[in-house]
Amino acid sequence: MRSKAGPGRSLRIAVVLLVAASGALESVSFLGLERVFAGVMTSNLALLGMAVGRGEVVCVTAAVLALAGFGLGALIGAWCTRGSATVATHWPRRVMIVLAAEAVLLAVGALVWGLTGGMPGGTTRDIMQFGAGLAMGAQSAAMVAAGQAAAPTTYLTGTLATYIVKGIHSGRQGVWVPLRFAGLVVGAAVSAALLKAARAWAAVPPVALMLCAIAVAGAQLGGGAPDYAGRS
To answer: Which pLDDT does position 166 carry in this prediction?
Structure first.
């Protein structure tokens, strides 16, 4: 039987690293900024509704900024990756460019966060909230453009449901989906711990994890023989 080409181990690791980066950024966004998420728009819509119902103007503003940033990021990411040919063995170059731009955006945010000691003022906080949503929107669009060579990295509710249903139906599941869940938890935990112990450094893990993901995926793009992994 012929082996079916699919995402290799390198790309699967890169996805886990991107999920961990998302988790780390969510900690900074929710715990360090205005109690909204950078990439989970379902929750932000619910938070927006609760803030409107309770008349909390600051929370309404934060939710709107996160939603607007995510939407714009997804729009830009989609525009930049339009026309990309999707394959199962590597991420298209345009996807890599979008991820690199996201890493730069996160690095700028981490620098501003560090220079303010992790306590940015009101206007700066709003800009950073918008920027965090922008980064996650761009990443989401990039992963959609990558097709079957990638997977969702900013929201995992559907991934969890699919994993459970397929597990019930087939009785067999691989390790990569649980590793994504673990990556999300670990990434969030690292930045949350830094927010408590070394606040000025809390925005660094998302950048470091993004760069690691890009490096791992870039090695696959470089033309090495695809390493076929097990089920996702």
So the answer is: 80
Closest C-alpha among 3, 8, 15, 25 to residue 131: 25
In whole angstroms, what is the distance from residue 132 CA to residue 219 CA? 27
Taking the model in full, what pTM does it have? 0.89
CB 18, CB 153: distance < 8 Å = yes
Q: Is 193:24 a contact under the CB 8 Å cutoff?
A: no
How long, in residues, is the chain? Answer: 232
Q: pLDDT tens for residues 39-83?
A: 999 999 999 999 999 999 888 999 999 999 999 999 999 999 998
> Residue 8: phi, psi to the nearest 5?
-80, 180
Q: Is 1 helix (H, G, I), strand (E, B) or coil?
A: coil
Provide the residue type at 107 as one letter.
A
Closest alpha carbon to 113 in 202, 210, 206, 191? 202
Side-chain-side CA neighbours of 80 within 13 Å: the count stands at 26
Burial code (b: 16+ CB inside 10 Å, e: under 16) for 87-114 equals: ebbbbbebbbebbebbbebbbebbeebe
pLDDT > 70? residue 108: yes
Contact predicate 18/210, CB 8 Å? yes
CA distances from 149 to 1, 52, 91, 206 (A): 22, 40, 6, 22
Residue 224: left (phi > 0), alpha (psi -120 to 50), or beta?
beta
Predicted confidence band at 162 (pLDDT cuts at 50, 70, 90)? confident
